[in-house]
Amino acid sequence: MMLSADEWTILALSLKVGALAMGAVLPLAFALAWVLARTRFPGKLLLDAVVHLPLVVPPVVTGWVLLLAFGPAGPLGSVLDRWFGVTVLFRWTGAAIAAGIMALPLMVRAMRLSIEAVDRRLESAARTLGAGPGRVFWTLTLPLSLPGVLAGAVLGFARSIGEFGATITFVSNVPGQTQTLPLAIYSALQQPGAEATVWRLSAISVALSLVALLASELLTRRVRRGLHVL
What Gene3D superfamilies does the database record attribute to this sequence (predicted)? Predict the structure, then answer.
């Protein structure tokens, strides 16, 4: 299980992409979860469907849409290039964007369930005692829903480091830039005599995913225990 220098680079890049994707998407995921859990408005069902669309469409389609959006002639890509001189094509930041988009539905779902599980009567009682909306949110709603938020973040991280289809379509498979664990495993499978590399990288992927799933389950159980006590 000793990793080569290239494999350490792949692992470090995967963790960096997963961390950036999860951190960047976390505020958006929580905001969407809050809107879907606590508000009513025309088009809410459509918003819910759009948020969860990456779960059901082929990842290649998501990657193609990102390529159209962030390409040199795309609406977002042209703005980034013209105003900031930045491109995300064939770069690890582009891989993080693809991973974040694919992780968003899982994060929103976990956070939404956690927010919906908070007893609204507790919030009403707090407001009756003089607490403002901001104080109710920071001292009551957020702490009660925090384990679910963390569980969503962990699931998002796990999904990010396992992303393949959208990434390879959007930013290709560039060693040192976009070649995360799934892409490196795919490349090794195409090379004769690279079975040992496939085994090592696959074992690392399984271990990381298993740890993330266990952490998410533990956090979910904590939410249930807390609600049972309340």
Answer: MetI-like
Q: What angle do CA 183, 188, 190 make, to 5 degrees?
A: 100
Q: How far apart are CA 57 and CA 67, in angstroms?
A: 16
Tens digit of pLDDT for each residue in 171-196? Answer: 999 998 899 999 999 999 988 888 88
Q: Which residues contact 46 (CB under 8 A, 6 or more apart)?
A: none
Whether residue 130 contacts residue 3, with contact meaning beta carbons closer than 8 Å, is answered with no
Query: What are the pLDDT digits (tens) for 112-125?
Result: 988 988 888 888 88
- Return d(Cα 56, Cα 65) in angstroms, integer: 15
> Is residue 228 over pLDDT 80?
no
Q: Measure the CA–CA gap between 200 and 10, rounded to whole angstroms.
A: 12
pTM above 0.85, yes or no: yes
Calpha distance 171→71 (Å, rounded): 10
With beta carbons less than 8 A apart as the criterion, state whether 18 and 160 touch.
Answer: yes
Who contacts 159 (Cβ-Cβ below 8 Å, separation ≥6)? Answer: 99, 102, 103, 106
pLDDT single digits (tens) 133-153: 888 888 888 888 888 888 889
